[in-house]
Amino acid sequence: MVESLVTTAERPRTRLIADPGGLSGYLTEPGVTASWVRRETGLIGFGQAWRMVFDDPAEADAWWANLVATVGVGEVDLDAARPSATRPGLTEAVTGGVHGGRGSRVSVKSASEGSGTAAADAASGATSVGGQRGSASTPEPMLPSALGPVAFVSFPFDPDHTRSRCQLIVPQTVVGRQDGLAWVTSWGEPVLPVEVANPEGRSWETFGPSPAGAGSRSSEPTGPGDKGLGVEPSHEVRSEGRPTELTGPGPVAYQTGARTAEDWLDVVRLALDRISAGEVSKVVVARVLVATADRPIEPAWLLRRLQASYPDTWVFAVAGLIGATPELLVRRDHGLVTSRVLAGTVRRTGGSAGQALAEALATSAKDLAEHEFAVASVAEALAPFCSSMNVPEAPFVLRLPNVMHLATDITGVARSQASVLAMATAVHPSAAVCGTPTLAARQLIRQIEGLDRGRYAGPVGWIGANGDGAMGIALRCGQFETPQRLRLFAGCGIVADSDPVSELAETEAKFLPMKQALGGPATAT
Q: Which positions are catalytic?
């Protein structure tokens, strides 16, 4: 399926903007269609220039590479960057082809230097810096990988056992903030007003439509679930043209999915029987809650509350899937490959009891075994893409407002031009969301779990023009079924020492971020 508001004749334009101090303020604007935000940095998309649906992640990767090769990175206005003396080599990095990987073209506009084009050509003598091509005589490029056109993507957990398909959205306008820079990239006129640098007077001016017309070029929602966010923005506009404060959906009721809590306990017991029989060493089983609100649920309102309560997670939205994941599946950035693996969980409490729980988690044989399976699966999958890797011998305890996890950060140096999507496809599904051995665990999930996970526990994130990007695992999330109804997901890794009742309690803790965002306190307790 293809939906597009632009053609390949229309190229994107990127301009630096006044630093907003954080991206959460943009989550009050109409027309939010995509998000990847952590600690007030990242990307927020508005409207959609293209929306694609694929059967295979490799098709999505190929389509995006072809689009970038066709239209290039577009126009990058460097004059706005001149006042920043802390980013040496900025002009050289762009004109040298920092975004030239994967065969793209870069058009650079600068009043003082004119404009030019840098082709990503292996014969040009340029050196490769993490898949981004730069002149051998210039410093290592420092521009954020997300500068320029980006696509947001989301893949199903099990493509052979779902009605869902791979989703790719290229927003019409993206606001980004990273590494001390803030910018807007837009195909045509931005769908919301932003303050950009005025090259002549070095002052700031409004770029884009009047606030009253914001979102006028964004595509109409195409329905719930895999057909889009499924929610019409309901903002009213004040007389001076600014949107009113977002409001909540009212009371929210929760129902179990096809399996009740007691039914799910039986699923865990069955998984333990299969582990005892030697079929698998670990298997992850999930359950569903259905949240139904009195009024339509505003995606931007939900994202803003998630970001406020869980700033250390990656708050994401792609095609109706919204959540706050603590797990980074893989990131590719300037040649560095990173993955954060989480496995082994306890519900968090405060005070000395919380510290005791953290110490118990760090020494728990059951949780350490579960974690070791997950780390080994990710490290093995990433090894072919890296010339060197660092895998810590022991995990650390990651403390979130609702739970604590055993966590390991794996890092490596990229050996090839493979994109972040290719890496994510190779790593997924890891033992953290599937089990060990992978094929046997996935088959067991199909047999006993009793639900269609859709894109829950699948890769979700963004890719830039050069193949860099970040992909998390879609956890602590919900999928829109209608504008007033979300399916919430939570799962647990089952190993030989697992206790069914404790695992059920763990799922309740993992439901908490979405339940709070839908109507609980604005900050986690």
A: 282, 327
